[in-house]
């Protein structure tokens, strides 16, 4: 088991951690439906009440916090663990929103893409041009499940397009250190796909077979894995939540398994890097409601937009 410090507990399914320059960590609480700040001493403060199901989060180039909102899940308490289920009765789709961190006011930017409704936006990352890549995992209703997609959008709410479709539960998303490769993890298959970026919001399709924009298979788990969100190390390694094994799996830029960091929660979902040297990992143990702090063996990659 990886050694860790509990920074905060009693959170209501935390995800989307963001390490801020003041030492605090922003995250979402999916069941509580909030954007929340955890101070360096562990104090928990609600920044904004969002509704739906806030999921991934990232600081944008304008300093606002951008949130993928999946529209909500029902939750069940099983042996002191909080487990997400199907959409609630009032589910009406997902959206992308931006939160002013000073006022807590939220602006909904996108509910659809040129008539394609957003079903379950999951995670996002900003590129060096200020554009936003985000995944939409879709929703599962009864025995029916959406196929997911990856979108690229502007922060002004005016430009959005679908770039990659279909995917099976796309979840985590990340950029290589040179900004030339987009990585996407699939929850339902336990795979990581890699796409060559040729321009802002555009991928190289020369090797594709219409309309299956699969890119390159970068890594496939050798056991049952539901890959969640990811963060990239400075050396290009991909670190991602691995459900139900309860930990962080690390994969090299060449697609090789490097190591697994075991954590005490089957729903170890997200990781981000902070600290002066970006060698502190903040990890969300979602079903037990814990934000964990871990001394990481290598430095994380500095994001294009930091808090």
Describe this structure in words.
With 307 residues, this protein is mainly β. It has one domain: TolB, C-terminal domain (Neuraminidase, 6 Propeller), CATH 2.120.10.30. It contains no helices and 31 strands. The chain has strands at residues 5-8, 14-19, 25-29, 34-38, 44-49, 54-59, 65-69, 75-78, 81-84, 95-99, 106-110, 112-113, 116-117, 121-126, 132-136, 140-141, 144-145, 148-153, 160-167, 170-175, 181-186, 191-199, 202-203, 216-220, 226-232, 238-243, 247-251, 257-262, 268-274, 280-285, 290-295. Strands 20, 21, 22, 23 and 24 form a five-stranded antiparallel β-sheet that branches. It has a four-stranded antiparallel β-sheet with strand order 1-31-30-29, with no helix packed on it. A four-stranded antiparallel β-sheet has the order 2-3-4-5, with no helix packed on it. The two termini are 30 Å apart. The model has no long low-confidence stretch (mean pLDDT 96).
Percent helix, as a range, is under 10%
Structural class: mainly beta
Q: What is the average of the pLDDT values?
A: 96
Number of strands: 31
The CATH class is Mainly Beta
Topology:
Blueprint: E1 5-8, E2 14-19, E3 25-29, E4 34-38, E5 44-49, E6 54-59, E7 65-69, E8 75-78, E9 81-84, E10 95-99, E11 106-110, E12 112-113, E13 116-117, E14 121-126, E15 132-136, E16 140-141, E17 144-145, E18 148-153, E19 160-167, E20 170-175, E21 181-186, E22 191-199, E23 202-203, E24 216-220, E25 226-232, E26 238-243, E27 247-251, E28 257-262, E29 268-274, E30 280-285, E31 290-295
Antiparallel strand pairs: 1-31, 2-3, 3-4, 4-5, 6-7, 7-10, 8-9, 10-11, 12-13, 14-15, 15-18, 16-17, 18-19, 20-21, 21-22, 22-23, 22-24, 25-26, 26-27, 27-28, 29-30, 30-31
């Amino acid at each position: 088991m990886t050694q860790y410090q509990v920074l905060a507990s009693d959170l209501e399914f935390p995800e989307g951690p963001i390490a801020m320059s003041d030492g605090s960590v922003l995250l979402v609480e999916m069941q509580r439906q909030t954007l929340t700040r955890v101070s360096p001493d562990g104090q928990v403060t609600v920044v904004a009440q969002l509704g739906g199901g806030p999921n991934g989060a990232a600081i944008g180039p304008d300093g606002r916090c951008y949130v993928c909102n999946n529209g909500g899940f029902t939750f069940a308490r099983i042996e002191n663990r909080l487990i997400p289920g199907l959409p609630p009765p009032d589910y009406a789709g997902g959206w992308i929103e931006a939160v002013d961190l000073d006022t807590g006011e939220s602006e909904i930017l996108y509910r659809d893409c040129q008539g394609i409704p957003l079903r379950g936006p999951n995670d996002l990352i900003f590129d060096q041009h200020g554009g936003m890549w985000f995944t939409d995992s879709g929703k599962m209703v009864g025995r029916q499940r959406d196929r997911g997609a990856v979108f690229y959008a502007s922060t002004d709410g005016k430009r959005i397009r679908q770039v990659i479709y279909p995917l099976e539960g796309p979840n985590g998303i990340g950029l290589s250190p040179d900004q030339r490769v987009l990585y996407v993890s699939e929850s339902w298959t336990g795979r990581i796909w890699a796409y060559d970026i040729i321009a802002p919001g555009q991928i190289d399709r020369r090797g594709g077979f219409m309309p299956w924009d699969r890119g390159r298979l970068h890594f496939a788990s050798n056991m049952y894995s539901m890959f969640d969100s990811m963060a990239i190390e400075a050396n290009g390694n991909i670190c991602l939540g691995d459900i139900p094994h309860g930990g962080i799996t690390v994969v090299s830029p060449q697609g090789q398994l490097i190591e697994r960091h075991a954590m005490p929660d089957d729903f170890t979902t997200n990781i981000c890097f902070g600290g002066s040297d970006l060698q502190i990992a903040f990890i969300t143990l979602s079903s037990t409601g814990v934000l964990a702090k871990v001394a990481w063996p290598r430095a994380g990659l500095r994001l294009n937009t930091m808090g």
